[in-house]
Amino acid sequence: MRTSDHLSNIEIDRVASGIAARLRGWTIQIALGGPDLNKLRREVANAVVSAAEGDWYALAEPVSPRELQRIKIVRWARQTSAVVVLVGAWALMVVQPFEVMEKLADRGLTHVILMCALGLAAIIHPRTGEQIHNALKGAAGMKGQGALSQSS
């Protein structure tokens, strides 16, 4: 979620990161089990009710500015790695810098390699598929608009 206000975006990131941290903590506590599960259940229920009433801070765990910076760096590294994998696979298939790549292209394995690269990129950054889908929808929309303006 983004707004046109930079300070609001920073606060939204901080609260969202706090909510994610709290949910990770609860997940670990639930997985480990133990005698405090009833207390945890009440804590989760109270936090969810408070959030439903508009108090999102009840769901958020305090996150330090240093932790927020680390999260942003990790997110950027994942996105960059996914793009590098996809662009690298595309370059190998289209530019074919190695003799082996020409043989693979002749055998029709380029699609398999590109799909594997897409799968790896999705593992590195889970929203890669959604971002590619949105880019393709946007490109198709622009292509359709271009066709309309040419026929007029």
Describe the structure.
- The chain has 2 domains: 6-58; 65-151, no CATH class.
- It has 6 helices and no strands.
- The chain has helices at residues 6-32, 37-52, 65-94, 99-106, 110-124, 128-151.
- Helix 3 (65-94) runs antiparallel to helix 5 (110-124).
- The longest helix is centred in the middle third of the chain and has 30 residues, at 65-94.
- The radius of gyration is 23 Å and the shape is elongated.
Structural category is mainly alpha
Strand content: under 5%
Shape: elongated
How confident is the prediction overall: mean pLDDT?
Answer: 77
Q: How many structural domains are formed by the residues? A: 2
Count every helix, treating DSSP H or I runs of 4 or more residues as helices.
6
Percentage of helical residues? over 70%
Radius of gyration: 23 Å
Distance between the termini: 38 Å
Largest sheet entry: none
**Unreliably modeled segments:** 147-152
Element string (H = helix, E = strand): HHHHHH
* Count of individual beta strands: 0
Task: Give a summary of the structure in a few sentences.
The protein has 152 residues and is mostly helical. The chain has two domains: 6-58; 65-151, no CATH class.
Write out key terms for the chains shown.
elongated, single chain, 2 domains, disordered C terminus, 6 helices
